[in-house]
Amino acid sequence: METTKANRPWVFVRGAGDLATGTILRLHRCGFKVLALECADPSAIRRKAAFCEAVWQGSTAVEGAVCRRIDRAEDAAAVSAAGEIPLLVDETCAAAELLHPAAVVDAILAKRNLGTNRAMAPITVGLGPGFTAGQDVDAVVETMRGHQLGRVIRQGAAIPNTGVPGNIGGYTAERVIHAPAAGPMEFVPDETGNLIDIGAVVRKGQCIGKVGGVEVPATLDGVLRGLIRQGYPVTKGLKIADIDPRLEQVANCDTVSDKARAIAGGVLEALLSLAEERGISLF
Prior knowledge:
283 residues
């Protein structure tokens, strides 16, 4: 039988936030038939580089690749055949019963396993802490910034979560802003009257938004790389914004990050090496 994308097996990616998007995009560009699975109310802050925005908007594009929300697993094939990436709200991977994926990649990045197991597909890969290769998944990909980032682990787990964001431009915890209160996210105007959103250059102490009427100040000077969507029902302490101190990064707010690309490379290695060892066709 002639090998075409239509008769290739599915690769599921659980999660479609900005780091997961790096993996989804890499696999899509390499010719894999990818279905993204998301929750009903994703809270990604790097919205311009996250396919999960399709949950809210119906479709979204990152680096020229279009991701389109579908309502039924049965609709995935038509979207894929059109050259787009289907996304289904499916928090339990129920679509596996119908589409029988050859591989499942857990890219939820919850720092714990939310249900992925080796019975879901012939190949299973987990990203970051919360998974143990050889037990609940076949391979784990390291997500911690540093020398090991993107490494494929075949036995054991990733580096435990430290709770401290990676160092960028000399800043760690200061880069990430958490909600000071509960309530809907409200965008605010800058001094010119334009609403502050992703890509804005902000100053330390400047109000970059409000949550439940409480002002959210910028924690440092830099580029607002991430900001949760307007109107999102925020809980106190939820991560709602991300500032990059490197002003040149203003041009990269809508593209996949270096970290996401490194992780995507590890996923690609894991899938291809496991498929080769087990005689599983992914194409």
